[in-house]
Amino acid sequence: MSQQRITSLRKQIAKHDELYHRDAKPQISDFEYDRLKRELADLEEANPELGFEESPTNKVGDDRLEGFESYTHAAPMKSLDNTYSEEEFIAFVERVGKSLEQESVSFVVEPKIDGVAVSLTYEHGKLVRAVTRGNGIQGDDITANALLIEELPRKLAGEGIPDVIEIRGEIFMRNEEFDRINAERESKGLEVYANPRNLAAGTVKMLDRSEVRRRKLNIVLYGLGHCEPLPFECQSRYHEQLKEWGAPVVERYWKVNGSEGAWKAIEQLDEMREGFNYPTDGAVIKVDSLSEQDSLGSTAKSPRWAIAYKFAAEQAETLLEAISIQVGRTGVLTPVAELRPVQLAGTTVSRATLHNQEEMQRKDVRPGDWVVVEKAGEIIPAMVRVVTDKRNETSKPFEFPQTCPSCSQPISKIEGEVAHRCLNRACPAQLQGSLEHFASRQCMDIEGLGEAVVEQLLSRGLVANIADIYKLTYDELIDLEKFAAKSALNLIDGIDKSRSAELWRLLHGLGIPQVGATAAKDLAKAYGSVQALREASLESLVAIDGVGEKTAKGIMSYFSDEANSEVIDLLFERGMKPQAPEVINMAEAVFADKVFVITGTLPTMKRDQAKSMIEENGGKVSGSVSKKTDYLLAGESAGSKLEKANKLGVAVLDEAAFLEMLSSY
């Protein structure tokens, strides 16, 4: 039983890690996520024979995305252990004191900011790079977007500036800006965003810098990574130094001694945090002395010298009037709690997710129960627990349906999954989801074709599949609610432009099982057209790096489905002309199989331009210098990568030499 639960928990946590870190669309609260990880950690401790190094309890979540260059942090960017319990917090303080052999340790208490973690590298006071946490070792380079944040200092001013320093902090969005953006989207009939943190996370990874500029992001700095030389000895002095250098800093921090002083600071922070300029969801407690931090060290995932105390999410008790079933794009059935409306976190809550049948059974939730719900960080409310003392004696467990509530077809529980699925491809609910997915920014990127518009198109019978998007007319769109002439013309224009989208976007948008954006790009490069992929054999598919037998069989099954084939044929009949990636003749490519690292500021081109030129000529670009690196393309302020390249004997090129190599081939 323990092994089954451990396997189930690992899958659930991996799914929620992907939703939170890469999609910026969490489905459960921090408290529920932390509860799952705590349960898994306890089970792994009790059953060490079932543990393994790749367990999510031993890893930092990974926010890296395809399309961004990765850079290695000079000092690992680990995540904090956290607690909701005063007793666990006191135990942390006692553990630190025992390790340092001190009766009273000096701590710094800071606000825990609910934003997107970022690491800024300054060389001789000049900002050279902004990188996300990534997997803690490597993160995505978001420098171009970070430079659009007005508060971000491009250059540190004052004295005592190190040669190289990594300054850590959070990018966030103020509530008023979040409300402005949502009001604007609602007026256009577009889907609104869930919460400021998710919107900030999505914005820093946008490729459209004009849109990033339009959405006002903010930043606050407080953390320290690599620093050489080190001009301060403690965290409290570091806060003052940041302020002196002109960096945006936390509005208040406390320097305290022992658990009693730290706990008083946490209580004060909780009372005043509503007046801060940034969203906070807890307190971070750090050992003040940097030398003592070094002495305490870290685990594979977290520092031993710091902990996050999270404030309890706002909760409310209400009646669970009914349980409904929601069907998603892939046919997964999700139970939803239909609640007696209750005020929670400033809004009226009437629905909460119950996740899946297994989770419902674990909590023993039944229609008619009084339940506790919470809403942390403005995300989808979650049902925390049942108030069993108020349960009616006649209550009965909820019977999960045997047929799909949308299409009445039989449902199936796939082996190895916790979810139940409707396998009917013509299911109306799945059609809604597939249309939204197809039009999304990650796929065909059809601006204006969001949830509200799709619902209207379906209810009026204007579309029956994704190909029907391409037969919509201005007269049909102008008749939709909240549509004016401009919005109808803009949508027609967006649909027309998507006809010539990149091939990988179409492959991703089709919703082929197991094929996400990365796999779609690999398939587009390998086959160059939808038709070639339709005719691909199992052997040729599994030969592609990253495509396993399960994915290959899913691809073949998708294209052998008659209904899918008809839709694909319709797409091309209605003008679909996807752009295939340029095929590189590796025998003639100047940089065939050569590995480059790019560092510093190039005189006439951006690093992204250089990266494209390398890849277009058969080379690969890595984020860190190693023995496998063939060339370091170095510009101004090349820093530590240039030193490492020289030590390893890696060939170093400046921009002129790089361009000469290209032109002379």
CATH class of the largest domain: Alpha Beta
Largest sheet: 7 strands, antiparallel
Please give the domain count. 5
pLDDT < 50 stretches: none
Name the CATH architecture of the largest domain.
2-Layer Sandwich
CATH topology of the largest domain: D-amino Acid Aminotransferase, Chain A, domain 1
C-alpha Rg (nearest Å)? 27 Å
Give the overall average pLDDT: 85
Shape: globular
Distance between the termini: 63 Å
Overall strand count:
22
Helix content, binned percent: 25-40%
Structural class category: alpha+beta
CATH superfamily of the largest domain: DNA ligase/mRNA capping enzyme
What would you note in describing this structure?
This protein has 665 residues and is of the alpha+beta class. It folds into five domains: 2-58, Helix hairpin bin (Helix Hairpins, Orthogonal Bundle), CATH 1.10.287; 70-310, DNA ligase/mRNA capping enzyme (D-amino Acid Aminotransferase, Chain A, domain 1, 2-Layer Sandwich); 315-390, Beta Barrel (OB fold (Dihydrolipoamide Acetyltransferase, E2P)), CATH 2.40.50.140; 428-573, 5' to 3' exonuclease, C-terminal subdomain (DNA polymerase, domain 1, Orthogonal Bundle), CATH 1.10.150.20; 595-664, Rossmann fold (3-Layer(aba) Sandwich). Helices cover 37% and strands 20% of the residues. It has 24 helices and 22 strands. The strands form five sheets. Strands 12, 13, 14, 15, 16, 17 and 18 form a seven-stranded antiparallel beta sheet that branches. A five-stranded mixed beta sheet has the order 2-11-10-3-9. It has a four-stranded antiparallel beta sheet with strand order 5-4-7-8. β15 and β16 form a beta hairpin. α1 runs antiparallel to α2 (30-46) and α16 (503-509) crosses α17 (517-527). The radius of gyration is 27 Å and the shape is globular. The N and C termini lie far apart (63 Å).
